[in-house]
Amino acid sequence: MKAFRLLAWQRPPELMDVEVPEPGPGQVLVRVGGAGACHSDLHLMEWPEGRVPFQVPFTLGHENAGRVEKLGPGATGFAPGDPVAVYGPWGCGACGACIRGMENVCENWRRRPFRGGGLGADGGMAEYLLVPATRYLVPLGGLDPVQAAPLTDAGLTPYHAVRASAPALRPGGLAVVIGAGGLGQMAVQILAATTGVRIAAVDVSEERVRVAKAMGAEHTVVTGPDARAQVRELNGGRGADVVFDFVGADSTLQLAAGLARPLGRLVLVGAGEGTIPFGFSAVPQECELVVSSWGTLPELAEVIALAERGILHAQVTTFPLERAADAYDALRRGALTGRAVVVPDGG
Ligand code: NAD
Ligand code: ZN
Ligand code: ZN
Predict the structure, then answer these.
(1) Spatial CB neighbours of 281, under 8 Å, sequence gap ≥ 6
(2) Comparing C-alpha atoms, which of 74, 73, 90 is closest to residue 129?
(3) In what order do the strands lie in the sheet with 260-268?
(4) If you ran DSSP here, which 8-state letter would residue 47 be given?
(5) How many alpha carbons fall within 13 Å on the CB side of residue 34?
(6) What is the gyration radius of the CA atoms in the chain, in angstroms?
(7) How far is the CA of 69 from the centre of ligand 1 (A)?
(8) For the residues of 245-297, what is the DSSP string, one character each?
(9) For 14-18, what is the mean pLDDT?
(10) pLDDT tens string 303-329
(11) pLDDT at 5
(12) Fewer CB within 10 A of the end CB, N or C, for the chain?
């Protein structure tokens, strides 16, 4: 089968032929319906060897949905043809985080050669994806796998970030979403659907803030020298209750720290590797700072339930597998409205 693979660090991935994997005991083979292109893959392509503990080569694509193709010996609970979303973070199963059901923050991930399919293990930018256990599958109900693929990361990650911030997200309060791309657009929808907060979306792109407005952001700000003052003004100069940074550059973290109010919360999701000082006078008093990582399996089921009810949906642009490189180019150039999804059997 064809697969879009990272063969070496800091080299463009390539489309090549690989063997179709055979599911072993407990494993399941999924025929990929859609594999989303995440900005984290762009970081992955740029990072030098050793930045993450994964061994190359591996097939990209950690945001996957499709249909069950074949169950390995002893694998139960699903039948061939079932439409499924694939839960992405595959933890060690034994650390404190994993036994609490939070494989998204597995304490051993840096000691393991993969974090999930597409992140060290072979991912979904191929015709088939080998999943280690059926418990990583969530039934899709009536959802189309192409539309559902982004739910597993672009949907799940902001959902987890929002749910963990629930105590600070009171009706009438103000939440700020910095970076209204694949994840940020879903964050706006999730905030609008599950909290009573007012939402301000901030992006460098006018097109993106327009999309965020259509998805439920009451206020939009195009990044510029006045962004901080403009957003603070929305809450009578007091700043925001929760600021979500879906970029994570120095500049966006500085903006986020300048926007959060005392007793507020700054949630970093973007992997831009920026930093801000942390000190007594450097952040608002009693403001929580959190790095948020992906989401849990039950949260993925909840994200899918929101999508099944028509409350949450990703703006999808499809690309055939042969054009996976173009999907990432479009993401890199900021040319997408929402998420690029690679569709192995068409697009
Ligand atoms: P994306 O490219 O679809 O969206 C990024 C958005 O940020 C774009 O709309 C872009 O215009 C905007 N942007 C860029 N620079 C900006 C700036 N200085 N100020 C304001 N807006 C700016 O990316 P994505 O797939 O949504 O991913 C977003 C980030 O989240 C990436 O860094 C990715 O690696 C990270 N990520 C983290 C997790 C996690 O578990 N923490 C999971 C998935 C993705
Ligand atoms: Zn991702
Ligand atoms: Zn673990």
Answers:
(1) none
(2) 90
(3) 219-222, 198-203, 174-178, 240-245, 260-268, 288-291
(4) S
(5) 29
(6) 20
(7) 33
(8) ESS--HHHHHHHHHHEEEEEEEEE---S------STTTS-TT-EEEE-----H
(9) 98
(10) 999 999 999 999 999 999 999 999 999
(11) 98
(12) N
Concatenating the DSSP letter of every residue in 205-245 gives: -HHHHHHHHHTT-SEEEE-STTHHHHHHHTTTTS-EEEEEE
Tell me if residue 124 falls in helix, strand or coil. coil
pLDDT of 114 reads 95
> What number of H helices and E strands is found in the chain?
10, 18
* Cβ of 248 below 6 Å from ligand 1: yes
Q: Is the pLDDT of residue 141 over 60?
A: yes
Both tokens of 176, joined, read 């700020």
Looking from the CA of residue 202, the nearest atom of ligand 1 is: 20
Tokens standing for 202? 């901030």
Output b/e per residue, 143-175; b: 16+ Cβ within 10 A: bebbbbbbbbbbbbbbbbbbbbbeebbeeebbb
3-class DSSP assignment, residue 98: helix
Find the ligand nearest to 149 CA.
2
The sign of the torsion formed by the CA atoms of 314, 317, 318, 321 equals negative
CA 168, chain centre distance (Å): 22
State whether residue 178 is helix, strand or coil.
strand
322-331 contacts, C-beta under 8 A, 24 or more apart: 322/2, 322/15, 323/347, 324/4, 324/13, 324/15, 324/37, 324/60, 324/125, 325/4, 325/12, 325/13, 325/15, 327/37, 328/13, 328/37, 328/41, 328/42, 328/45, 331/37, 331/39, 331/42, 331/182
Query: What is the Cα–Cα distance from 229 to 233, expressed in whole angstroms?
Result: 6
107-127 pLDDT tens trace: 999 999 999 999 999 999 999
Q: Is 104 in the pocket of ligand 1 (CB under 6 A)?
A: no
Residues 155 and 147: beta-carbon distance below 8 Å:
no
Report residue 78's pLDDT band, with 50, 70 and 90 as the boundaries.
very high
- Distance, CA 158 to ligand 2 centroid (Å)? 11
